[in-house]
Amino acid sequence: MKLLYNISKLDSIYFKKRRKKNQLNVSVLLPFRSATINYDSIKEVESLFEDRNLYTIALDFYSGVLYAVEDLKKLNISIKLNVFDTENSVNKILEISNNTEIINSDLVIGPLIPRNFETLSNLEFLESIPKVFPLSTIPIKIIKGVVLAVTPRNLLRETMLDYLDKKIDRDENIVIIADSLNEEIDNRLTKIFPNSIKIKPEFEGYILPELLDSLLVDSLPNKVIIESEIFTLISSVISQLNSQITSERDVRLYTTYRGNQYDDPSINVKDLGNLGFTYTSISKKINNDSISQFESNYINLFGSFPNKDVIRGYDVAKDIILRVLIDNNLNKTVKYDEQLYTESKFSYKIDSLGGLYNSAIYILKHKDYDIEEIIDQ
């Protein structure tokens, strides 16, 4: 088992290597869409922030960055934060890129959308400035100057495939449910489990209940692997499988890629716990019965509980700012072991084109209402 350093690891390295310059010029590019919001209309503003969307994600992520900046003041680190509204527009990003504050930045965080980020990262005159892509698992080109803070989707899948290969007994009843968009991963799973049963969705992303019922058995553990990002399919499979669990029938659920569809409130967390749902992830949710120190400090600063986007903003910003302070050449910081923060961890590697990507991965399993990390892999 690989030992993880605690949160003070990069802090202590920074103290040992502290340079004369402990002030950073950090630019943050996020799609606030401030110019298009009618602030005179309370109803419009309330409707915009009622649901989780690109703009609420941007605001939450930004508050996490602010929290990290505030936290780093304890280390006597001074950060000049330059904030730009990309308006989710390529033209706006090109306009922003010529701003002297961007050109003189030590670090750029954002944009959030792959198309917008690659517009910025492909500008040669900004090549020497580290540019962090912080949230999405959608693939981007990891060229020189790019820091992919999210573990790539293909690496999440490879890690889970390896885990399934090692942990699932070939003599168990293995069922693979994959939609037409996941044929490649379906074929790879079939090679690992040649005797598995394969199910294709019958219509509109659903599996017929009687079909699933007929393929599950009482005599062996049932291991079901689902490969889809279609919410209707995911939701119906979870519900149907949960209803199949009895004292005689054991059913477990896995996937090689867990998308945001599983966060939908209509999916019962207890159902996932009953199924021991297991997957790889870039983050691990805080499971506390009481308010943590992190949450308490955030509430004192902002007056509300931090959500996953806030925490992601904090984790990404704190780690990358410390790395830039430790060494201007971020590629030299890959020698430091895995760094664990509030919900995320970071272990950077150098890509073939010279950029950096995060290789840190959690393997998680639902148990009752909680989520546990699987350490013994």
Q: What's the arrangement of secondary structure elements?
A:
Elements: H1 9-17, E1 23-30, H2 42-50, H3 54-72, E2 78-85, H4 90-97, H5 100-103, E3 107-109, H6 114-121, E4 131-133, E5 146-148, H7 153-167, E6 173-178, H8 183-192, E7 197-199, H9 209-215, E8 222-227, H10 231-244, E9 251-254, H11 269-274, E10 278-281, H12 293-302, H13 308-326, E11 339-340, E12 345-346, E13 348-350, E14 356-358, E15 362-367, E16 370-373
Parallel strand pairs: 1-2, 1-3, 3-4, 4-5, 5-14, 6-7, 6-8, 8-9
Antiparallel strand pairs: 10-15, 11-12, 13-14, 15-16
Helix pairs in contact: 1-13, 3-13, 4-6
Give structural attributes.
377 residues; alpha/beta; Rossmann fold; 7-stranded mixed sheet; 4-stranded parallel sheet; 16 strands; 37% helix; elongated; disordered N terminus
Report on the structure:
The chain has about 375 residues and is α/β, with parallel strands linked by helices. It folds into 2 domains: about 10-150 and about 290-360, Rossmann fold (3-Layer(aba) Sandwich), CATH 3.40.50; about 155-280, 3-Layer(aba) Sandwich (Rossmann fold). Helices cover about 35% and strands about 20% of the residues. It contains 13 helices and 16 strands. It has helices at about 10-15, 40-50, 55-70, 90-95, 100-105, 115-120, 155-165, 185-190, 210-215, 230-245, 270-275, 295-300, 310-325; strands at about 25-30, 80-85, 105-110, 130-135, 145-150, 175-180, 195-200, 220-225, 250-255, 280, 340, 345, 350, 355-360, 360-365, 370-375. The protein has a 7-stranded mixed beta sheet with strand order 2-1-3-4-5-14-13, with helices on both faces. A 4-stranded parallel beta sheet has the order 7-6-8-9, with helices on both faces. α6 links the parallel β3 (about 105-110) and β4. α1 (about 10-15) runs parallel beside α13, α3 (about 55-70) crosses α13 and α4 packs parallel to α6. The protein starts with 8 loop residues before the first helix and ends with a strand. Mean pLDDT is about 90; it is low at about 1-5 and about 35-50.
